[in-house]
Specification:
The protein is α/β, with parallel strands linked by helices. It is 37% helix and 20% strand. The chain has helices spanning 32-41, 60-73, 84-93, 99-107, 111-119, 197-208, 227-252, 257-263, 278-297; strands spanning 12-16, 19-23, 50-55, 76-80, 136-138, 141-143, 150-154, 163-167, 172-176, 215-218, 255-256, 265-266, 271-272, 301-306, 309-314. The chain has a five-stranded mixed β-sheet. A five-stranded mixed β-sheet has the order 6-7-8-9-10, with no helix packed on it. It has a three-stranded antiparallel β-sheet with strand order 11-15-14. The N and C termini lie far apart (46 Å). The mean pLDDT is 93.
Amino acid sequence: MPQDGLRAVNVYVLETGGGLALIDGGWHRPDTYRELAAGLARIGRSPDEIHDVFVTHVHRDHYTFAVELRRRHGCRVHLGAGESPGLEAVRRLGTNEPQNALHELRRAGAGALATRARAGSLAESFDPHDWEPPDHWLRPGDVDLAGYRLHARATPGHTKGHMVFEDLDRKLMFTGDHVLPTITPSIGFELGPWELPLENFLRSLTLLSDDDTPVMLPAHGMPGGSVGRRARALLAHHDERLAQTVAVVGELAPCTGSAVARALTWTRHDRSFDTLGTFDQMFATCETLAHLDLLVARNVLTAKDNDGVDVFSTAR
């Protein structure tokens, strides 16, 4: 991974009677094929044995190399049906820039940050061939894969069509970016309209919070640990974050989302907003706005549009 924060994306290999299946494809970059081939060689396998790739969501670090593997070896690519509008938007607009995130930055009063993000972290070349449609749009339910009882669950929030895959016999869950071991994922970072992504994310976490049995196999970070326990920890984190957000608005109101983001601390190390890079500042501001929007929906805060910028206050 080229960014400083996420060092790698995990691609999981499932050995089947007919070859190999992958959970997530990875990011199509110049060295990706070499890295995958070297990893498979360590277990005596090769990329030409891959017959299916099940992708948790449409972000480039999960989807684009699955498409490249299909070009090279003819494997089938599967993606959650809820990702169809986002993928269609990528193809129609000819860009992978998260247009809704840039819009939300402006709504948060962070237009200058949006400009820096477009000029920096988001300014990557776009290859339309990386964004060709999947062979199959997945819906929740059992997945047809020989030798496995694999069950797909819809977990919108990180993206609208995010899915996790549970290996029922081995008590494993491939959690994509929905449940990560040390961080909380970005919320609503995709093309398409903003539809209370934090509410969707929390609802999806709740669906996984009651069962401590499945072992977490995340897309970023080390595998291991209980999915249910981590889901509860993430729910508690967001409860705390919502309370912190209300407190900051109480001190600063009337205030913009950008002002609230700057007043909060970030990462497990409680870093100030100004110490973050541009890409992480974008995530932080959008996440703050997602919390603010949910609090408005819950009638805890109010929002007033001021020439395209929302100004937040505590509800009377």
